Amino acid sequence: MPRRNDLKSILIIGAGPIVIGQACEFDYSGVQACKALREEGYKVILVNSNPATIMTDPELADSTYIEPINWKALKKIIEIEKPDAILPTMGGQTGLNAALDLDKYGILKQFNVELIGATKEAIDKAEDREKFAEAIKKIGLFTPKAGLAHNLKEATKIQSEVGFPCIIRPNFTMGGSGSGIAYNTQEFEEICERGLDLSPTTELYIDQYLSGWKEYEMEVVRDKSDNCIIVCSIENFDPMGVHTGDSITVAPAQTLTDKEYQHMRDASMAILREIGVETGGSNVQFAINPENGDMVVIEMNPRVSRSSALASKATGFPIAKIAAKLAVGFTLDELENDISEDGIPASFEPTIDYVVTKIPRFNFEKFSGASNTLTSQMKSVGEVMAIGSTFKESFQKAIRGLEIGKSGLDGFEKKLNKSSLRAGIISPTPDRIYFIAEALRLDYSIDDLNTMSGIDPWFLKELKEIIDFEKNIANEDFLNDKEEFYKAKQMGFSDQKISLIRNQDENEIRKIRKKLKINPVFKRVDTCAAEFKTTTAYMYSTYQEECESDPTDKKKVMVLGGGPNRIGQGIEFDYCCVHAAQALKENGFETIMVNCNPETVSTDYDTSDRLYFEPITLEDVLEIIEIEKPDGLIIQYGGQTPLKLANDLEKFNVPIFGTSPDQIDLSEDRARFLEFVKQNKLTQPPNGMASNKEEAIQIGNKIGYPLVVRPSYVLGGRAMEVVYGSDDLVNYLTEAFQVNDSNPVLLDKFLDVAIEFDVEAISDGTEILICGILQHIEQAGVHSGDSACSIPPYNIDKKTEDKIRKEVTKVIENMEIIGLVNVQIAYVNNTVYLLEVNPRASRTIPFVSKALGMPLAKIAARVMAGISLKEQKISEVPKLEFFNVKEAVMPFEKFQNVDPILGPEMRSTGEVMGIGKTFEEAFEKAEIAAGVSIPESGSAFISVRNTDKQFLKDIAEDLTTTGFTLVGTKGTVRTLKELGYPARQINKVLEGRPHIIDLMKNKEISLVINTTEGRESIKDSASIRRTALEEKICCTTTIQGAVAICKVIRNQLDWSVQKLQDIH
User: How far apart are CA 533 and CA 982, in angstroms?
Assistant: First the structure.
């Protein structure tokens, strides 16, 4: 069936900000969908609130709206654009839920808009677990014993039938949000209450927990003619109980018999038919009882999912692109497989002759008090994928790609006792594989480990073979035995891992390997196990005979990507890498991308000319450089991942484009940077460096409190704290950070009420272009990645702006910068203070690019390749007609017992953007897009620290004018009354009942303004902030955030929507 000609315009709903459970895989799917539909001549309208996405680049769709993804905003867009159809399956759970809301509120009917890709009925049948269970039963398959509840009473009744342990899952949520496994009544009630709150339909599905069962996924694609293919089978390394997004997964499935695989394949196709998924990609999850082979169906996603991105990258089959074309009427046999060149149709089921391993990346260290036990609720913030000829090779490559300081199955520094080793094997945590490795070194049997962990014996035997081979590597003659050395490389042992086992220098190992002529070859991902020819250069390294790389002798540039997403280094850096590849491709370079993150646009096979899906380690990168011989490398776009390799790459005479490693080192080496500041008469807050506790206290007393303290080597504000006196400092040095000669602590005067700015600029060595001055909304003390910010600045005068420009220009002129540079500034008491300089891509580049309508990362990439700003005809940036506000999105609801307070350590996972004619409009849209619901009326609880009381008059005026009543603690109420505003006094939590938490739980408070300082006060007031989060009360923990929210409340307005193509 050819394309539908009755449709002219299609609206694609994006997934919004990066959150745990929904990451940049939906940018990847959205980009593919936009390209696919425009290729077929449709007008494409795109809505997404996340500026750090390639899909929101104005050239990708015909109309691009960076707006909140809710039915009210979508209605405004539908009114303007009048699309014929909506494709909601590319935007994760956000896209599906928004589409269901459009149906619920009658908007689809009102504007005669059709849902394509998935019907409302199919979405309902797949997402409503009760309907899903009925459908599965109808086709003769089984689901775990279960029932649907709408309240705690119904839930308890179902639990008595299902028994303990049971698993509770809220309906219509993603990433396992709110789900959990209950072993007793107390846990059951807690999980149910949380789940009912999180489910948009207030429904819980309670089913029997299949402890120890094996979990599998099938990626299925179906078209309107009922052609159905399995793109990929995926097996979870961990047994049931760990969310599939948090489990190590392997493709293709390794432990299924052919009979089991065929049964699962048939079941997947039958499920798609019964649910009514007529077109597109779906993901079906199964569990198998290892004791007797019984199979049950767990769930299905009637949309492109996280696993679809993994399956696409694992096989080379572009699921999202094909799904978009199927949604407009094509059938699989009418579409070609892009990767195979012999006109192979997309109905040809992919086959792979290698093994793919995905390992999730976690950031538990960012969330003090959070448990690192893995459950049915997803907690990982990113993932890494590796390809190898065997499971062992791909598994070890994936570990080193994670960037967690491990080069393989490394041992523990301290000897483990029997009980902690046993606990580490039984309890699913990110470290479980290292505990198992340790047990294997101690000769634990496979049977014992299988009983304790529930992990399939096949995987345990594979790990045992890796551990056993360590003894061969430690053997004295190993380095002289070419056969043994080659075998180690085939098993995935890196030079670094070999050097650790042998206690030798990695360079030494590399030299011997090169002397023995042991080199990897590069194989191509071709979807057909080399059965047909491919011209697509999508490659992975392995140790075999024949190399398929076939490099060219064109002028070429290599871009090093950012590796797995993590807090502090996310999609923003991938965005920059994609732009570098696009820009230099346009300028005649052959572009080579190196990355190991399956979620991203950078690892799409058509983003660059050549793609190497490899870990970003020195060894892996050097092997690619050796074969490709690029004219230059771009290492400044992938965050800290490639920057860490800068000095070593330079030692190997690798040509690096742009700012040199020496200048990058100047900005990051504290002692060198202080010298640079002094030499150039720049102003920094008073600071010092201490190597022991006594020295730190001495410096603290000399500088004066409050101070910002941090280790000298950190990223993303790790272990950074504001201390308000010597007691706080001693506590920090005792609890948070062990200071010594090799781990000095940095102490800076904390500029308490300063306004912070991020300044983005491009320098070509001659010309300096100041691209944007971003004013932080939260005052100093909140990590720049967690602070909301506005471009243009929203409340400073031109004189101050000029002062900042002058200082930034002076900094850049005195450094040798070629490319992007980010300068962080604090402004207080008429003085501009230099906080830090980052001569690389920063996380605000996509946001500023969207605000200006200028692709800054592309312009800077050309500059790095030697094309000056003058040659690019760029001398200034456009004047901004709109306010643009970036807001950070926090993952606090995923981590129970964590205090949701903003501070110097970064904890946000993503960002959104609001665009408006006034600052208030832009800020409100950003807050709504970030999931913050600003109240229009009610009672506001105010409790602020003394330094913030100077702002109370404005806040109280805005709130009382709008009819809010004020509630506060003793000191704040006293100040409010002195200012002439009546307020009700309420107890702090430690002052007796009734206290503020009672009011919050009784729904008597609709806004919380709570600022505090000092370790003790923060600890004492944590329950207020946590309750606000749990009760969904709008809460701000910074005074400037409160001022901005109160301005929105006072200026309640009905905002408009703008498409980027009209703004610029």
Answer: 79
